[in-house]
Request: fold
Amino acid sequence: MGTVIRLLADHSPTGWQAEMMASHADGGALAVLNAWRKVRGSLKRRLRSGGIDIVHVHSATRWSWKRKRGLIAIARKAGIPVVLSLHSGDFDRHCAERGSEMTAVLATVHTVVLSESWRLRLSTWLGDCSVIPNPVPTVPVSHERDRTSFLLMGRANPMKGQSIAIDAVKRLRDEGHAVTLHLTGISQSEPGITGHGWVDGEEKESLLSTSGTLLSPSEWEGLSMTIIEAMARGMPVLASPASEGVFDKAGRIVQRDAQSFATAMKAMLSGDEWHHMSAAGPDESGKFLLDNIVPLWGALYDEVAR
Reply:
């Protein structure tokens, strides 16, 4: 979500200017609380100074939603329209749990979801909303990849499926396949498993440019930035049903268990399927390119600000 916010803030639609305010901070609960308190005050002062046409809020669930709900209230009290982007892949569960609270808040904003399937899944609570996917900047395509190297990028959270990928790699290595799994968000390493911890910049680019296949065995996803970044770079994708509909020929949907992933990963080691996926990725990612997404935001801002 942070990556999307920075991209949109740095590439405002024609006729619009963006100021970014962060309600999240690394460093634990106290750091997040302090950031939230700071941004509440900053938003109130900025709205009083004038010149703001729209407040664009990005939200996941749980604590993210609690923070953003307060910011929405501040903007609406000031009479400023709010655009709310929903990013979490389990926002339907979140809405079901919170019921009337969600209906009341969502009725006061213009909501944006990441795909048509999310519009349908959330229709009970959202009513009318817009669909605008996450953007990916233009990136270099790389076909010089090590097909024995697999990559899983994401925070250290069981829902991301790291244990499934690790088990799948161990099964392949037990069969004699010299494969390696690169994990971000996790620092621990063992034979066949390399933990990189938090990565950014050159290290992230190196992993995305040289790894053979991206793995995404997530329990749920909104619209994985890592998947569309991999597609744009020509890296094949093996993903759980949580990413159904994101790609066509650029990857394969795999059932969310270690044996299914191990079987699909083995197919990536040889044969033509890997090449076909790699070649399809850049074209299929075109609908997510930043240059194509920014005008959609411009049109929405113009409509909401009328």
Remarks:
- The longest helix spans residues 29-49.
